[in-house]
Design brief:
Elements: H1 7-10, E1 17-20, H2 22-37, E2 42-46, H3 53-62, E3 65-68, H4 71-79, E4 87-89, H5 96-105, E5 109-112, H6 115-128, E6 132-139, E7 161-162, H7 166-171, E8 179-185, H8 195-214, E9 221-223, H9 243-253, E10 261-266, H10 268-271, E11 275-286, E12 292-296, H11 305-309, E13 315-317, E14 325-330, E15 339-346, E16 354-357, E17 378-381
Parallel strand pairs: 1-17, 2-3, 2-10, 3-4, 4-5, 5-6, 6-7, 6-8, 8-9, 9-10, 12-14
Antiparallel strand pairs: 1-11, 11-12, 11-16, 13-16, 14-15
Helix pairs in contact: 2-3, 4-5, 5-6, 8-9
């Protein structure tokens, strides 16, 4: 656990704050590049997971592209030095302003999620005298076997073009003169730990891809999205996810035509384990029902995942290692859902102890808010302590 080695310095840091282990991040990026390059795959970092400038700097140095879901993310990627030619713009409801900006930058491709969106991009591109490079995001109706709030590839999802509507969209292409179809895009969900899901995705993609081929549409690129999960329960035992196994599944089961390139959009699996939320214990209290509460200075405004969809983050006491008590850990926000964990075992914990909430590098700081007029948490980096 990286933050424990910095306990003496963390004593003097204002909390709550995010701690990023830059050495672990760079090691993770090295593995991603090594394992994806083995098959000639291209990885675009999913910026929504964490858009911290130091994170983006490391991503750029590693040679990854960027997967963006807003105009500001596209702008952030370009500001970070990631070439526009390696930027993919996804997102189910892109605004006209965002589309114009991305067209001005001449990005690699738009991942289009509906026939209506295709028409709008065509119109705007025509007004600007440009050609829009587009990949169809097809909803493959594959069960991702993950939390419903992070499932995106099932039949009733708001994401993607339904496979039942593909014929209609293809038929409209003759009238869309400012569109160039460059590929297909798929994404079934996040935090997927069962590799069988990716095997099923490959089998589905092979069928859909062959249909396009028979329709006379040349596909230069196949984008399989991301979704690889991490070990939240025991992060120390698996700090770097099984990228070798992940990419090997696609090599084995995905049919690739000569000249086609295969793309991925990984976020959580790259940055989650390098980040921790550091917080101090403010108070201990016991309820009438006998629950031992630890109340800390971090709240759901700093890490919303537990409140949003009951996500679990392992919590450790960096200051103590004696005894064993059962605690519920809550924050200062005036919401009953501001609870990080219930009934967890920790050493005897008291006011002033420093706790670390692990695996918080993805969808942690990226989702902070000022609710209750809270200050935003600080950020510190291992190589600057």
């Amino acid at each position: 656990m990286s933050s424990r080695g910095f306990l003496s310095k963390l004593q003097n840091v204002e909390t709550p704050c995010y701690f990023y282990d830059m050495e672990l991040l760079n090691k993770t990026l090295d593995v991603v590049v090594k394992e994806s390059s083995r098959y000639g795959y291209k990885v675009h970092y999913a910026m929504k997971a964490n858009f911290d400038p130091r994170i983006l700097e490391a991503v750029r140095k590693a040679g990854l592209g960027a997967d963006c879901v807003s105009g500001n993310e596209v702008k952030g990627a370009i500001t970070a030095g990631i070439p526009a030619s390696e930027i993919v713009f996804a997102g189910v409801a892109k605004s006209d302003k965002e589309i114009r900006y991305a067209l001005e930058q001449n990005i690699f491709a738009f991942n289009v999620e509906s026939g209506n969106e295709l028409e709008v991009i065509n119109q705007i591109a025509g007004e600007m005298g440009r050609k829009a490079h587009v990949a169809f995001r097809i909803n493959p109706d594959v069960d991702p076997k993950t939390h419903k709030n992070i499932s995106t590839g099932h039949a009733d999802s708001k994401f993607g073009i339904s496979y039942t509507e593909v014929d209609e969209v293809i038929a409209s292409l003759d009238n869309l003169k400012n569109i160039e179809i460059v590929g297909l895009h798929f994404h079934v969900g996040s935090q997927i730990r069962d590799m069988k899901v990716f095997e099923n995705l490959c089998n589905r993609v092979n069928v859909i891809k062959d249909w396009f081929k028979k329709s006379g549409i040349v596909l230069k690129h196949i984008n399989l999205g991301g979704g690889l999960g991490i070990n939240y329960d025991d992060p120390e035992s698996e700090l770097i996810p099984d990228f070798a196994g992940y990419f090997a599944v696609f090599k084995k089961y995905l049919d690739v035509e000569p000249g086609q390139t295969v793309h991925f959009e990984l976020g959580r699996s790259i940055v989650a384990q390098c980040g921790e939320l550091i917080t101090r214990v403010l108070y201990n209290k016991k309820t009438a029902s006998g629950t031992n509460y630890i109340l800390v200075d971090a709240g759901m405004t700093d890490l919303i995942r537990p409140a949003l969809y009951s996500a679990k983050h392992k919590i450790v006491n960096l200051s103590a290692d004696k005894g064993d008590e059962v605690y519920t850990v809550g924050g200062p926000i005036c919401e009953s859902s501001d609870i990080f964990a219930r009934g967890i075992h920790l050493p005897v914990t008291k006011r002033g102890d420093i706790l670390a909430m692990l695996s918080a590098g993805a969808y942690g700081y990226a989702m902070v808010s000022h609710y209750n007029m809270r200050d935003l948490p600080g950020v510190i980096y291992s190589d600057q302590l």
